[in-house]
Amino acid sequence: MTATPIYKSKNTRGGGVLLYEEIVAKVREMIKVGTYLPGERIPSVRTLSRQMRVSVNTVMEAYLRLENAGLIEARPRSGYYVCAPQRQAVCRQASGAPLPAIVPSPVTIDDAALQVMQAIGNPKLVPLGSGVPNIDLLPIDRLNRMLGSESKRFPLQSVAYPSARGHKRLRTEIVKRLLDAGCSLMPDDIIITSGCVEATTLALQAVCRHGDTVAIGSPVYPTFLRAIEWMGLKVLEIPYNSEGMNLDVLDYAIRQNPVHACITIANFNNPLGSLLPNERKHQLVELLAKHEIPLIEDDVYGDLCFGSNRPAAIKSFDKYGLVLYCSSFSKTLAPGYRVGWIAPGRFLDKVLHLKTLLNIATASPTQLTVTEFLTNGGYDRHLRTLRKVYARQIAKMLDAVGRYFPHGTHVNPPEGGYILWVVMPDGFDSFKLYELALNEGISIAPGNIFTLSDRYRNCFRLNAALWSEQIEQALETLGRLAKTLIK
């Protein structure tokens, strides 16, 4: 079916170039009055460029702004379509907030954002906005017993410097598990790290230098921003649509700017909870490979799927050695053990060198303990239980948000993990909600900590891993506070 032409206008400025604001306004109006219905295709970038006698870049700029506003979405190899009403709310930004410029930005995390992150980790507050797993669901007693028994079983290994690559038995077990993610690797392709944060930081150090530019999906996991700030890098925020990172925007940004790396969380994204389809994963790999741009993949939530099949890693589509795959056991087993890993592809030697400079190696006792648990501790059974509990708790939190929060609140149910991204009506200020909640002894993660811009002011993150009567009462309080902020 051919999309209906938008219009032909004589209202041009300078050389016949139509202002992109006119295209934005016209498409908005046509969606509003029903000329284009949800799910209907709108003219392609090139078609509209030809119709309007304007440049492709002008139309692309207009479509980027419409997509960021949640009105349209790009579908792979198909074009742009009007979003369904619920999907229009996924990444909607506050009315009047600046729209994203596809130019690199230096990272400076302000004091307010740092205070929010400190509040999120404050044990005296009800942690509705944290990103931590539920410790009560982890096999603490078994792990502690294994920690003691493995230290006795391997007394020298438990106190001596391990290999910088990490214990081979652990790397072997990880390689076996990665088969479920579609990755065919060897133990020597893996380096054990002190958690996933160290893995992603090592990856950044391996592929970037001071002043380089990193493309990153937006909203952004705040720890990525802190690492990027520490390294003196610049950021290109690439908006997510309903299927993950917008590849049209990424392609456009790469053509406009030198990009030295890309970072994404494809499986159960933090904070969106979204899952990137396999076709998009493959397209992302091919797009970046065309420009020789390394991709840093954080897959720390991949094992927490609610379905029968674990989602594939982006790494499974990598034929070029350009994907640096990072993960850990922090969300599924023991965050305090700080056991993670990286499969850095063609950058293995560089990452190994950086690891030895940073801390020589990851601690032996926890490596030995995790190895034993993977081998004989029933990790798969533990994962099945964890997935079922988190799926139930996601459902409970979604129900509570539906009952307690004001009309117009949107949350997309995730297919895994335990993170919920709450989108309030336009004009809502989640930072004000954060401040009000603090006075009630509750912490949330307001949208401003997930971006360098003024977007996502009407959004915030919730953690469904933690569920109790206290959590439900806190949600009821939060909903009551939110209603006071609706204009």
Question: Brief description of this entry?
Answer:
Helices cover 41% and strands 13% of the residues.
Structure write-up:
GO terms for molecular function: DNA binding; DNA-binding transcription factor activity; pyridoxal phosphate binding; transaminase activity. Keywords: Aminotransferase, DNA-binding, Pyridoxal phosphate, Transcription, Transcription regulation, Transferase. The chain has 487 residues and is α/β, with parallel strands linked by helices. It has three domains: 65 residues, Winged helix-like DNA-binding domain superfamily/Winged helix DNA-binding domain (Arc Repressor Mutant, subunit A); 131 residues, Alpha-Beta Complex (Aspartate Aminotransferase, domain 1); 239 residues, Type I PLP-dependent aspartate aminotransferase-like (Major domain) (Aspartate Aminotransferase, domain 2, 3-Layer(aba) Sandwich), CATH 3.40.640.10. It contains 16 helices and 17 strands. The strands form four sheets. Strands 3, 5, 6, 7, 8, 9, 10, 11 and 12 form a nine-stranded mixed β-sheet that branches. The protein has a four-stranded antiparallel β-sheet with strand order 13-14-17-16. The chain has a two-stranded antiparallel sheet with strand order 1-2. Helix 5 crosses helix 13, helix 14 runs parallel beside helix 16 and helix 15 crosses helix 16. The chain is globular and about 75 Å long. The relative contact order is 0.14. About 6% of the residues have low confidence.
